[in-house]
Task: structure prediction
Amino acid sequence: MVKKIIFMVLLVVNVQAEKNIYDTNCLACHKQLSFNLEKIFFRYLLKYSDEVSVKSALVDFLQEPNSDISVMSKEYTRSFGLKQKSELDKEQLKEAIDIYWEKYTVFGKIK
Amino acid sequence: MLVSKSKATSLQKSERKTLVSFLLLYSFFAVVILFFSAFIYYNLQKDVMLREQNSQLKEYSDELIGKLRSLHEDFTYNKTYPRSKDYNSAIYDSSNKEIFSTLIKNEVDLTKHLYVIGNKIHYIRILERYYLGTMYLVIEINENEKWFNFFKIKVLLYGVALFLILLIAGYFLLKLLLKPMRESLYLLDRFIKDTTHELNTPVSAILMNIETFPRDTLDEKSAKKIHRIDIAARTISNIYNDLTYVALKNQVNSKDESVNLTDLIKERGEFFKIISTQKKLVCNLDLEKSVVIMIDRGKITRLIDNLISNAIKYNKKSGSIHIKLRKNYFLIEDSGIGMTKKEIKEIFERYTRFNKSEGGFGIGLNIVAAIASEYNLSIDVDSKLHIGTKVKISW
Result:
């Protein structure tokens, strides 16, 4: 019984440890939204095309959310409001965005 | 010496050489101009062909953009790139990074709109909305080679026809331009030939009459005058022979025969003996008996005469001339003014005269060099300034 408890505790600790900055700071909230992160990614891709521009636009928006630079429609931001300013610093934001890019990038996925 | 009638009436060698050189140069420039024109025509034809393909390529790109849009929207479920049997394609993001490609020719120039690479045509279109991040869309189709085959045939036919027309025009143009010059040269040539011919009779008459003149009956003063006339007549005769050789050398056929050089040098020595007495020169002949070579008698006579004449002309008063003949060489040595090494290099050039106080045109050694070259005779000149000159002719 003691062994089982120890095993469960270790499993929970391990799962927590595997969660990265993107999972804990981005995915956790966006999971509950109707507009998922993949759709947002493709909106950025549609507007900014390459990796550097997409990442830079994401950093700018997350640091200073603004309806003018948002990829979402005006109707959407009017109905649901703008995202709150991110509490992550620039380096942390970059790290989270790098993970986000790798997760949804089209490079190497097209057949 | 025989004058060849056919050569005299046909184009002269130098004129023919000028004609050939001009036509070669003219042909070269004509070919360059034709190539340049063909190049411009090729580019025009290529542009026409590309314009014809442009609308078709735009249709293909519209079709592909539609399919990219669908793929962008359904990327979660479908990741298969839209392909077509009519064309290949590729997509690039705004940093020119390839997103996906089915191109055969992968070297893409995204700065151009439409171009040919190998046997393929590339059409580049910039998208307004970047589906899957695509800023540049490339459509690749096979080049229609019909136009190029048609172009090759046209250029070959027109090119050859135009080249021939230019060549014929050039030939007649040159003939027209050379006509007045040719007439002037012909007149000058005729004048020189007529003059030299007309000189021959009086010079021969003077020489013959002086030789047969009974000098014993004359007083000392008159004998001296006759002697001077004799020297002058022989000098004129030598100049006359040189001029005849230069004037007619292109139109004279060599008539080689066995020439006894021993006898010929003795004979020419006798001829020049009177001239040499004017400078009180001592002449030594060291001739091997019966040295015979195959050569044109007139030409070898000009060669020997010019060497002896120079040895006399550029000698000191009371100097000496030594003539040596052996089986394979002939040497003439004088005790004259000599030459520097630089002067030796230039002596065989026409109209070269180092001592302007002496008479002549400076053509003597040029004639010697021309004859030696014709018969593969080697000339060695050894000279020391103020000591003398040795000229050796070997065969």
Observations:
- The two ends of chain A are 50 Å apart (CA to CA).
- Confidence is low (pLDDT under 50) at residues 9-13 of chain A.
- Chain A is about 65% helix and 0% strand.
